[in-house]
Amino acid sequence: MLRTAPRSWIFNKGIDEGLESMRVEAAREEEEQQRELEERAKKLAEIYRAAKSAVSGGFKRDRNWQLLERVGGTDLVGVEFDGNAVFAVSSIQWQITILIDVLLHRKLGRNLQTPVSVCQYLQRLNLIRRDFLYLRETVEQKITQHQEDFRAPWRVVCAYLDFLTEKGIAAHLMKGYTIAPAVGSLWIEASMEIEAARLRVDTAAEQVKRILNEADPTRRSAVTVGGWFSSVDPQSNLTFREALESSEHHVRIERELRAIEAMLDGRSAIPSDALALPIDDLIAAAEEQQAMLELARDSVLKRATSASQI
Prior knowledge:
mainly alpha, rod-shaped, coiled coil
């Protein structure tokens, strides 16, 4: 009875006082946490409002944009959602990154992508404002009390992925999102065409650079590689860059550039078109040299024929 039987306090003043002290301390800590949460939410709401007015509408017209232009998909980016200002770039920039890099080119691998995995990728590219990274749901809810259109980055990404799904561009499966198969095959083909055009332009730039280096300095002084690309090809009425990028005219220009290089190498090739390059004197010299070689060959043939008749 004194030592081993089960027992409990019916009343102990010290225990009750201790419990009350713990309740007071817990309430004080809870109040402090709520005050800190409120202050943080107000500050982030202010930062968000400032970010809304600071977001730039500019974006880089790179190969991704060229691809969207080719497939008629420019209306798929630049879409406004609540929470757009959590990103450090324009809506076109972060949306085109998701659409082309993540979904089409699968830069995160072939697995299905979730809004969270996409946000992690955007974060690595510094496309999300640092103030809005890693927001707990309680913080997000508190911010929306001060700024109704605020959304956490992953929610904005989710809204965009759902938008693409509604448009038939993306497919939402059980574990995430991917590009719609029919769309993907067509866009990959267009992407390959753009890449081939880029390689043609890069190759032509090296060829034109070499040609200009070997041209008469007095003739080439006003011609640069960039200037040549911007000048008009008389046969197509396109700039030489546009003609090289086109599927219709690039073969002719590539052929003539190869012929010019062969002429510079001393081979018996004479281009039929100088392509607006300052090499008319080089072509004339090559034609004169070829004519002399033909005369020499004719003379040798005549002497050989005469010798055989004797």
